[in-house]
Amino acid sequence: MTPFGIKMRELRALKGVNQKQMAEDLKISAAYLSALERGHRGEPSWQFLQRVIGYFNIIWDDAEEFQKLAASSHTRVVVDTENLSASATSLANLLSDEIAKLTEKDCKKLIAEIKKLTSK
To answer: For 5, which of 10, 31, 37, 90 could close a Cys bridge (C-beta 3.0–4.6 Å)?
Structure first.
């Protein structure tokens, strides 16, 4: 599951609609909607996001956050370290090799630490 998928499920629950109904309303397949929610599809198109934002009546700042969630919900990420340091390449490879061993708590701690380090 992705952050975008989790948010979609939350929004559907708040609106009281199931996947089939939402898919019909948006004129997409229920399979596509299910795949998006489960993280089996990549980032949805801008046009699709706009339809979902309208469907849930998401306003300004929330719409921007929703779009950021979609953009950060790729399940097959490629990290290009070609012009970066050897340490950056080692970090990218280590994360690739070991991420499956991390707990949800571990991931949240790493995210917070990286955000802290990069916001200086």
So the answer is: 37
User: What digits encode the pLDDT tens for the residues 62-109?
Assistant: 999 999 989 888 777 889 999 999 999 999 999 999 999 999 999 999
29 near 23, Cβ under 8 Å?
yes
The residue to which tokens 């469907």 are assigned: 55
E runs forming strands in the chain:
none
Number of neighbouring beta carbons within 10 Å of residue 73 = 21
Closest by alpha carbon to 12, among 37, 44, 43? Answer: 37
Q: Which two tokens stand for residue 17?
A: 């609609």
Specify whether the CB–CB gap between 73 and 37 falls below 8 A.
Answer: no
AA letter at 89: T
Q: With b meaning 16 or more CB within 10 Å and e meaning fewer, what string describes 91-116?
A: ebeeeeeeeeeeeeeeeeeeeeeeee
Give the tokens for residue 50: 């706009």
CB-based contact 32:38 (threshold 8 Å): no
> What is this structure's pTM?
0.69
